[in-house]
Amino acid sequence: MGHTPSDTIAVVGAGVMGRSITALALGRGVHVVLVDVSEEVLGNARAEIAQQLRHGQFMGAFPGSPAPGTLTTTQSTSDVADAAVVIEAITEDASLKARVMADISSTVPAGVPLITNTSGIPIAELAKSVQRPAELAGVHFMNPAYLIEMVEVIRGPQTGDDAMAAILSVLERLGKKTVVVRDAPGFVTSRLLHPMINEAARVVAEGTASVEAVDRLMHGCLGHPTGPLRTADLIGLDNLADALRLLAERTGNPTFEPCELLMEKVRRGDLGRKTGRGFYDYGKVLS
């Protein structure tokens, strides 16, 4: 590869979050090995990451304008073995994540920390699949990762001091502000944000206020940056429904179950910005 491990990270999963995390790292001058099972997905990811890099540069997200890192794409997880840290960023599916984490864990040498990018699956649950639970922690990157400065870092019950120090050092290199929290379903941000979005959708379904009115009130009165329903469209309504089901299941609280309006939109395929329509109409499908 030609790079030293300290300036190379591996990202496993070239979906929405994997692309965004990759753009963040490249923009900060860090080299990235991006892994996915699909060559087609990797090809599309390359084009979108280049676009995100340009957007990040335009928005001043990479201070000092370092020379961008190089991107290597591969379909083989064996190519992650030389990275300083491996970030798993596949879809938010606990059993799929567990399988991928087991594969990565058997590939990387001892001492290389593993990060799972999750919005709410308990780290203790995923730690059962890895060979060295002390080297696993969670990082909940917000989308787009190259623009949102803060991340939620989740220390699992078995996460060791060395891994935590290494992970915080990598995040600092990526320009992130960090808040470390303890392990729990939904952690802090999802535990608070996702049920709020669910309630906002219920308010609309009950006819109390329109989508626009809910968001304007939350923005104007309570300082929410975009409003909960516009935020839902950015997250993806299918992802949101999955996260809410996970919260309901893991906490035993049935009020977290996704409401009917949300499920109706998911069934119709109106999943938010990525499909062109969710709570708002965006006019065209985003590629």
From TrEMBL:
Pathway the protein acts in: Lipid metabolism; butanoate metabolism
Domain 3-hydroxyacyl-CoA dehydrogenase NAD binding: 8-183
Highest taxon above the source species: Bacteria
GO biological process, one term: fatty acid metabolic process
Keywords associated with the record: NAD, Oxidoreductase
Molecular function GO labels: NAD+ binding; oxidoreductase activity, acting on the CH-OH group of donors, NAD or NADP as acceptor
Site feature: Important for catalytic activity: H140
Binding site for NAD(+): G13, A14, G15, V16, M17, G18, D36, E92, K97, S119, N143, K274
Pfam families linked to this entry: 3HCDH (PF00725), 3HCDH_N (PF02737)
Homology family: Belongs to the 3-hydroxyacyl-CoA dehydrogenase family.
Protein known as: 3-hydroxybutyryl-CoA dehydrogenase
Organism of origin: Streptomyces malaysiensis
